[in-house]
Amino acid sequence: MIDLLVIGNPTIDYIEGEFFGPGGPVTYISNSLAQLGQNKIDIVTSFGKDFSEENFPDCKNLLNIKSDHTNIFDFFFISEIRRMNVIHGGKKIKLSDIKIKKEPNLIFISPVLNEFSIDKTKQLMEKFKSSFFIGIPQGWIRKVIGEEVKFDFSGFEQFPRFDILFFSDEELSNSRNSLEKLRKLSNILVITRGDRGVSVYEKDEILNFPSVKVDSVNSIGAGDIFATVFSIKYYQLKNKSLAAKFANQIAAHSTRYEGLKSINPESFYKSMKK
To answer: Which among 180, 179, 173 is positioned nearest to 196, based on CA atoms?
Structure first.
């Protein structure tokens, strides 16, 4: 088994005012890890009484920095472009909150609203120098204006260097920065492109993988599922193509379901056999 640490706050998701379910990268990552058979998972997070610990199954240690409210995101669509409002916010995560003695093999940094900062991540990298760091940095490229969340890449040059870093095509198109600049932020850069597949960059190598065609119901969480599967499979196999193949299949089949129901044996194991 792999020693794993996941850092970030969960969300309670709504779509155009109607309840959708528990969400946030930390939730989808931890559930995906459990579905992949991993049970040595430490989670450092912050949520309120409106969010159940049962949303984190098979977690070895769950540290919740108790908050009055859990992050609440309300997604809405303008001309098929997804936007979101923030209703509440969780607490910040401090470096001193991470009370882990044994150095994890893999560490997922997955903030939703900068609850674990760039500087804190750099300090954590200094503390756990042998760990494999995975960045899903949505919370570092968001700015809340009123209640609406906007993209803000103004601090991206301060990012620490990750082993694997994930962005979506939507995030990339709003960055106003060249792909070459983003590639300098990690050893492996992965850009997920929805129904146009995924691109994987390492040094001078570029690998493009087509999407897997399925009858999709909802894609919320699919990017986090892809990132989790790719990271675990790459760490185990050291093969980007195989990792992308597994992740592509599983993430695609997960969109046939809504919310955390997308993380199930059929999505994960039956699709891996194809």
So the answer is: 173
Residue 253 vs residues 12, 184, 234, 237, 261: alpha-carbon distances, Å: 23, 32, 20, 22, 11
Residue 79 has pLDDT above 90, yes or no: no
Over the range 182-221, which residues count as b (16 or more CB within 10 Å of their CB) and which as e?
Answer: bbebbebbbbbbeeebbbbbeeeeeeebeebebeeebbbb
DSSP 8-state code for residue 266: I
| Cα–Cα distance, 209 to 130 (Å, whole number) | 30
Is residue 127's pLDDT more than 70? yes
Q: What is the pLDDT of residues 142-158, one digit of tens each?
A: 998 888 899 999 888 89
What span, in angstroms and rounded, lies between the C-alpha atoms of 133 and 160? Answer: 10
Helix (H) or strand (E) holding 120: helix 118-127
Q: Which two tokens stand for residue 21?
A: 């379910």
> Homologous superfamily of 4-272 in CATH?
Ribokinase (3.40.1190.20)
